[in-house]
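To fix ideas, we give here one paired sequence and structure record:
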Amino acid sequence: MTVTVGTQGSPNAGGVAAPSAQGTAAAPGSGAKVRWSGAFRLGMEGVDLTADPPAAGNGTYLRPGAARSGSSGMMVRGTVAPWSGPGEPTAEGCRQLLLTQKRNELDVSVGDQVCVVEGSSPIGVLKVTAAHYDAGSYGELDTTLTVWDLRMGR
């Protein structure tokens, strides 16, 4: 399995997530409370944002997921939008970006923040903390994943 989840600084093996900020109050102006936040290793199997805590794809390819890009880069595939605004991403800010600037894939580098959603899943944001081009079958990304209690339809 190429996706490992856990709390920041202490990823658990086997795709079992340990929350670091579950059910916390909404940040000012965000409009939604944090459902889950922690370290997440993203591989080609992707992440199930509807699971609480988020779970790695188990024999299936979920989106968002990580993939190699070119000879040394990495990308996130799925319904994604780059966060480039001032300050930290918010649930409503990501929702607006996903409505107006969504892409099917996005090249990423360490430090990038990417708003993500899949179908009716909750909205999330990935902050890329490390890229591993040679890891797994298609590369892997170490990220900090935050999932909010907000969906695209609400």
